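Posted in: Structural Biology > Protein-Ligand Complexes

Title: Requesting predicted complex, NAP in pocket

I'd be grateful if someone could produce the 3D structure tokens for the following input. Sequence and ligand are given below.
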Amino acid sequence: MNEHNISRRTLLKALLALGISGSSITKLLHAATQNILVKKIPSSGEEIPVIGLGTSRTFDALGDEELLMHLKNVMQVFFDHKGTLVDSSPMYGGAEAVIGKLLKQISNNPPLFSATKVWTYGEQAGVKQMEESRKLWGIKRFDLMQIHNLRDWEVHYKTLKKMKAEGQIRYIGVTTSHGRFHNELEVLLETLAFDFVQLSYNIDNREVEEKLLKIALDKGVAVIVNRPYQRGDLFSLVRGKALPDWASEIDVTSWGQYFLKYIVSHPAVTCTIPATTKVKHLVDNMAAQTGRLPDAKMRNEMIRYFKSL
Ligand SMILES: NC(=O)c1ccc[n+]([C@@H]2O[C@H](COP(=O)([O-])OP(=O)(O)OC[C@H]3O[C@@H](n4cnc5c(N)ncnc54)[C@H](OP(=O)(O)O)[C@@H]3O)[C@@H](O)[C@H]2O)c1
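-- Reply #1 --
Done. Output follows.
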């Protein structure tokens, strides 16, 4: 695990351009200029920040101008906080078109780690869909292309291997969520050469700790964790409950940070991709990639406390 920091001046310019001022700017600057936590992609050694940005449902906003304005700010503040990995899929309605539209409006040309998915049957349909996604995002190539929910993986795996060898994508991955297809996924990770796996994992849904995370660690596969808040349901479980006194020892000041730090402190996890439509939630989420992370003992304490509520 390493830490990086960011230029204060670059950030100040971007925040002023967003119309953010006063005490908000001081808070944002403080959070964003701290060192950030990054982890290595095992297959290459490249480092990425531990908090990325999901876009399922939240970015499906074509035609809703007010929401699009909020999402532009969400994306700008994400990049201002040194976020890089944005995850999407052709399955998410207009999300990829929205990403493409907003990327054109982002200031300072920040580094982007683009991750999307192929979600269809058949080789030709897969190639066509990936090309359509690339055009929607308006980028030269994707950093990461993932087979969404293992759909037609035998076919797409061959295509992705070829695309990677030709330099059309940099990494290949496979995704699941909600605990589906875990047995099949274990076999895929054991036998094929995926750079990334994406799966659901959080403090209330720890099934992948048993096997999948161990296999990923052992085989050197980077792990992206989706649904870190169980689509927001985790917050209802802790509504009105206080954080433990010792939360300050791991620099946690909100339940969001508590949940995210639990996830990214697992040795096999590379990053997680919470989704949001709100700048204040985005800032909260990005705070989880600063400060101290829990060690194994503290992680057990986090589970014990969460279960006691
Ligand atoms: N099979 C797959 O490949 C697969 C499946 C599922 C998800 N994914 C990926 O994983 C991403 C994340 O999963 P998800 O979108 O299902 O759910 P999630 O990130 O667990 O939860 C999103 C919800 O949490 C709320 N939220 C976010 N930050 C918050 C904060 N700090 N405080 C309070 N509420 C907060 C958001 O509401 P507000 O808008 O009000 O902030 C939103 O309703 C997806 O967007 C997608 O990119 C992939």
